Amino acid sequence: MQMVVLPTLLSGRDCVLLTDTGIGKSLSFVAPAVIHINDQPMLQPGDGPIALFLCPTREFVKQVHEITTRYCRASRIKHTEIHGDLTRDEQIKELQGACEIVVAVPGRINEMLDIQATNCTRLTYLVLDGLDRMLELGFEPYLTKIIKAMRQDGAAQFFVSCAEWTDKECNFVNSCMKNPVCITFGDIEPPIDLNLAMKMADKNYPPAKRQRGLTFEVKKEEENDDKAAVLQQRPPLQGIADEDPDSDGTVLMLRNCVGPGEVDDDLQNEVQEECGKFGPVVESMMFACAAGGAVPSEEAVRIFVRFEQREVCLRAFVALHGRPFGKRLVCCNLYSSKRYEALDLKPNATLDPPMPRVVMLRNMVGPGDVDDELEDEIWEECVNKYGEVVDVKIREVADGSVCPEEAVRIFVKFEDTEGTLEAVRDLNGRLFNGRLVHCCFYDEKRFDEKDLSPEPLFEPPIPPSCKVVVQA
Predict the structure, then answer these.
(1) Is the pLDDT of residue 346 over 80?
(2) Terminus of the chain with fewer CB atoms < 10 Å: N or C?
(3) How confident is the model at residue 291 (pLDDT cuts 50, 70, 90)?
(4) How many Å apart are CA 456 and CA 410, to the nearest integer?
């Protein structure tokens, strides 16, 4: 469960989790909260919390606060718990001491808001842990009041957990969250199409694409005693045709690590060791073309790594695709397991997944900063520096449903791979009008289908150095 929830929240997306209690979900929202808070300006006298965790009962508040205490020690983040076992004076004193995280029951924190012991002007991270239970206890007016008092500029992020999913929970979530990632864990029975049941308002996001990478069913592995989570709904494959019956999604091909004539005895072992950081590796193989041949330099050396699990292979793909390796950028693709088993490893222009030709730029401009000239300016800049451009697309979300770094996504498709590689090397990390640009490869098939929406599990996260500091 955590391997799905953590990257979702770290990407800035809202998240709905359907699960029972006692399965370790607290860490999934506490850890991203710590990172979120560390990216914000320091609290000033009179400021309220940056993160608020609401729970239905004082017992749950104490449990979540214990987890929060454990993970906030090293970061020096102040936190407190607000419930009926503490006196009002104690709670007022704690809140006025500039606490970044408050863990509370809805009724008592509303009392503190009514007497102005705290406020929600800095609140940008709200957790409703056990929403179904809170609605059952009649806390809906308190929750609505807190949400209305939060910042309304689109900077807020929500996480909701439920043990039950009925029309009541659906309607409440629908009123405060936009385009959330929806996850089920364990034996909870969600609606047939959870995202469709959410009745998301974005009419440009058709139901077929809501299903792709946005709704996940996560279950415990019955074979193991631990609570390792595995994706039961297989996410789409990138870099190889979705309809290819010969692929089981466990073989990763890495190209452009080195050029022809640059292979040494340790290269294959180094790559296999690096891939092993993502999970169990079965074996690796390498195919190298002779120097001076007709095969392009980027494709002359091909390293193949077979993983035990498809999900591990996908994680390695997301992490390694576009990673610098010496003076080169690694190009990863999922590879046909049938060809791999037949030792068909040599380049084949007809069967091989294409080398990357599309780049995505994030955090280059912010929401509301896109003008009519931006596309032409990017086209001209890329043609002059990196080579022929086929197409440029810009996707802007100005309604606050995504984090500021994801609000404007710029895509450039080049005529050849060489221009693509040069663009990523040059643009990634460049300072542009006070912003650090994040540039990476993007799946060409998704680009051609105009599927430009964020999918956190299939895209590299924006590094913390590129995060936009939200001003109070």
Answers:
(1) yes
(2) C
(3) low
(4) 16
Residue 466, pLDDT score: 66
What's the pLDDT at 414? 95
Q: What is the pTM of this model?
A: 0.51
Amino acid at 442: Y
- Locate tokens 């929970």: which residue? 169
Q: How many CA atoms lie within 13 A of 149 on its CB side?
A: 22
Distance CA 339, CA 247 (A): 9
pLDDT tier for residue 207 given thresholds of 50, 70 and 90: very low
Residue 11 and residue 36: Cα distance in Å, rounded?
A: 10
